[in-house]
Amino acid sequence: MKVTVCRKEHFNAAHRLHNPEWDDATNQKVFGKCNNPNYHGHNYDLVVHLTGSVDARTGYVIDMKVMKDIIREEVTDRYDHKNLNLDVADFKNLNPTAENIAGVIWNRLRAAFEDHLDLKITLYETERNYVEYSGN
Amino acid sequence: MKVTVCRKEHFNAAHRLHNPEWDDATNQKVFGKCNNPNYHGHNYDLVVHLTGSVDARTGYVIDMKVMKDIIREEVTDRYDHKNLNLDVADFKNLNPTAENIAGVIWNRLRAAFEDHLDLKITLYETERNYVEYSGN
Amino acid sequence: MKVTVCRKEHFNAAHRLHNPEWDDATNQKVFGKCNNPNYHGHNYDLVVHLTGSVDARTGYVIDMKVMKDIIREEVTDRYDHKNLNLDVADFKNLNPTAENIAGVIWNRLRAAFEDHLDLKITLYETERNYVEYSGN
Amino acid sequence: MKVTVCRKEHFNAAHRLHNPEWDDATNQKVFGKCNNPNYHGHNYDLVVHLTGSVDARTGYVIDMKVMKDIIREEVTDRYDHKNLNLDVADFKNLNPTAENIAGVIWNRLRAAFEDHLDLKITLYETERNYVEYSGN
Amino acid sequence: MKVTVCRKEHFNAAHRLHNPEWDDATNQKVFGKCNNPNYHGHNYDLVVHLTGSVDARTGYVIDMKVMKDIIREEVTDRYDHKNLNLDVADFKNLNPTAENIAGVIWNRLRAAFEDHLDLKITLYETERNYVEYSGN
Amino acid sequence: MKVTVCRKEHFNAAHRLHNPEWDDATNQKVFGKCNNPNYHGHNYDLVVHLTGSVDARTGYVIDMKVMKDIIREEVTDRYDHKNLNLDVADFKNLNPTAENIAGVIWNRLRAAFEDHLDLKITLYETERNYVEYSGN
Questions:
Q1: What is the CATH T-level fold of the domain C2-133, as seen in this structure?
Q2: Per the CB < 8 Å rule, is C99 touching F65?
Q3: pLDDT, tens digit, 9 for 90 and up, residues F106-121
Q4: Distance between CA atoms of F69 and E132, rounded to whole angstroms?
């Protein structure tokens, strides 16, 4: 019996969209107000989805407390109340779009959770804009 | 790297469920209070899900602003504050159930978005009733 | 000890904003797309707030089940899946703006709940537009 | 044309996580505060997802009212305002983790809905913790 | 300049409504399924509202972190994953209706927050049922 | 008949809490991670509440479209995708705590809406932290 277990966490961060290989006019044209050199910010909501077999002894796919602690250690404690472009090494050379943030988070969590668990994440930049990534 | 990008839009519309091939008693029996000849209405929430490769230069699957503009042009500007049965050609000969509205919206959006992007939609008729369609 | 007890109910209805004393051009100018002669609709959420003393024997201001039944009998069963302009006598001669719907609902509920309970209502036309009325 | 129809219902219940084959210290270590011998509780939200062909006459995959009635008869009327461990036969010999509750609910609903409809369920224990199961 | 600062916290608990001065039939008649002798439960959401002057040096009415810590120490750490009737001294002789829980929480918080801050609380038993209390 | 009309808008912004009269150690001690010199950010939700008489001809306290346009012109167009500390003159000499942002927004809106309308605002910094201000 394979069940997907989902846990929602959040972090509040500043970011700016910018491609250093382009001049300012191109950046402004492509990224619009998201290119503001002084940054803007979001309350990000992150949902982690792990799929695996249910352990007959515990009735768990994974202890939700363990899951929560790993998400906080790998992601939210590193990103919360940070400027993603300036404070987080993951984005020193990577534009922090929702798509790229999701890719980085997925890689972090893939390394942290056991291999037999399938992993998907959903990252909400706002209530109306969000992305999903499952490593493919 | 393939990511799914999701955008939520909404529209407020009146509708009525009715099959013109049936008599009134049958329509009333099948569709109940949704068959009210004077219509009722909903705040519809539409989530559009597009899956594609992340462009290495922008970090985008698609510019969310482009995505939003297409959804508004193809769907919400056409349906918002309308009577789906009377005002919208799409439903002149099609019963506007959530399933059928989702089918029509999917076809509109499939024609508008580039072919390399996979498309799924979720349409909420109420917070408790919703449908999903991916063209299959 | 005075506590406020709140209960949320909902109804789905069609409506149209229109002042019969004005010509069509004026109505269109004032009410815009809400003036559509074929109606549009909403999922209305209604929150009823009753303030009163806590009964020492029950620990209740009012039995929430009684409160729910009265709201349904007086309001939601009458308005749900209806066209407010055409099907509901309350709006035969009253423009069904959120403000006016709230006034009518408040009067209905004021007559139905016991006098020693203070009454306020909140009516959501959408998640972003709502009104409050307390009889003043 | 295959569409997925989703319906959300809810129930409020008490439960306790416990494996009778383990001693108290092990149960406390594994299940932590969820092992409280006097129980705790949740507002569970259940979303049922049914995928099937749209009937050309009705425009429905399934009548949402039929779907709602089956969910209430099979699940929420049985579990609502109950102690899952003590009052519900389904959990007399099964630890009521979210994963196991989802498995039991899926089996109940699988037997109740017609075979040509694919079935998935989502069970929210809290807004932040939830599970999904589709019978695999 | 007086501002109201609001903080939401939550706890998951079991409870049962029961008046020991009444016989079982009366309790069952008054409290219905909430009288289940084996308990049921809820995800309670608690919003604390504090009104006071803004400190010109900090720009705070109160440090939200201090506010959160006091709410957790006084309320949610005591009630979370507990059976309110059996595990919490506050309800040994008090029926844990939403109204009474709100009264007890207000008293706890009134003693913990400084006197110059006005205090109101909102307690959600479910998304649809909630109460407000401000000490009057 | 006096009704309160409420409209929700949002903006995404970066900010940092800092008192320039204090040294870095004091700022860090008082504001903690909110003092990050590189900023963090939020999705702010703003609810504007206007109380006034219902116009008998329109059934409106105020045209919600006018209300929305004023909020956008006065507040959200100025603050959205901005760094409040660096880009917004309102906070050049004012620490952008939720309390202070609410005070500035209230003053802006008080000047923009007609005097006979009572004004209150609610500003959500996160789903769990928010403030209310009504000019007193």
A1: Tetrahydropterin Synthase; Chain A (3.30.479)
A2: no
A3: 999 999 999 999 999 9
A4: 33
- At residue C100, the 3 state secondary structure works out as helix
The catalytic residues of D are: 34, 81, 125
| Helix pair angle (D98-112, D64-71), 10° resolution | 130
Using DSSP's 3-state secondary structure scheme, residue C83 falls into strand
B86: which chain C residues are within 8 Å (Cβ-Cβ)? 38
Model-level pTM greater than 0.95? Answer: yes
Closest C-alpha to F103, from F64, F82, F75, F126? F75
Does F59 sit within 8 Å of C30, measured CB to CB?
Answer: no
Compute CA distances A117 → A113, D95, D96, whole Å: 7, 22, 22
Rounded distance, CA D70 to CA E66, Å? 48
Residue written as token pair 């600062």: E5
Per-residue pLDDT of chain C (136 residues; tens, 9 = 90+): 999 999 999 999 999 999 999 999 999 999 999 999 999 999 999 999 999 999 999 999 999 999 999 999 999 999 999 999 999 999 999 999 999 999 999 999 999 999 999 999 999 999 999 999 999 8
Domain spans of chain D? 2-133
Residue of A nearest to B7 (CA): A129
Count CA within 13 A, CB hemisphere, residue E125.
Answer: 26
Say what the pLDDT of residue D17 is: 98
Please give the pLDDT value at position E89: 97
Work out the average pLDDT over D12-30.
Answer: 98
Cβ D103–A2 below 8 Å, yes or no? no
Q: pLDDT per residue over A46-83, tens digit each?
A: 999 999 999 999 999 999 999 999 999 999 999 999 99
F17 within 8 A of E59, measured Cβ to Cβ = yes
Three-state DSSP state, E109: helix
| Measured torsion, CA atoms of residues B70, B71, B76, B79, in degrees rounded to the nearest 10 | 90
Residue F97, chain E, CB below 8 Å: the answer is yes
Q: What per-residue confidence (pLDDT) applies to E42?
A: 98
Residues of A in contact with F81 (CB under 8 A): 33-34, 36, 40
- Cα-only R_g, chain D: 17
Contact assignment for A132 to B6 by CB distance below 8 Å? yes
Can you list the positions of beta strands (E) in chain C? 2-15, 40-53, 82-83, 118-124, 129-133
Structure tokens at D83: 């102690």
pLDDT score, position D136: 87
Cβ atoms of D74 and D88 closer than 8 Å: no
Per-window interface: D 16-75 vs E, CB < 8 A: 33-34, 36, 38-43
For residue F94, list chain E residues with Cβ-Cβ distance below 8 A.
59
CB contact under 8 A, E99 and C3: yes
Token code pair at residue E110: 């009134």
Q: Are A124 and A45 in contact (CB under 8 A)?
A: yes
Distance (Å, rounded) from C-alpha C47 to C-alpha B75? 31
Q: What percent of chain A has pLDDT over 90?
A: 99
Hey, CA dihedral for F81, F83, F86, F90, is it positive or negative? positive
Q: Provide, as residue numbers in chain A, all residues whose Cβ is less than 8 Å from the Cβ of B61.
A: 99, 131
Q: Do residues B64 and B127 make contact, with C-beta atoms less than 8 angstroms apart?
A: no
Q: Is the ipTM of this complex over 0.90?
A: yes
Say whether residue F81 is in contact with chain A using an 8 A CB cutoff. Answer: yes
Give which of F4, F113, F118, F104 is closest to F46, Cα–Cα.
Answer: F104
Residue B136 has pLDDT above 90, yes or no: no
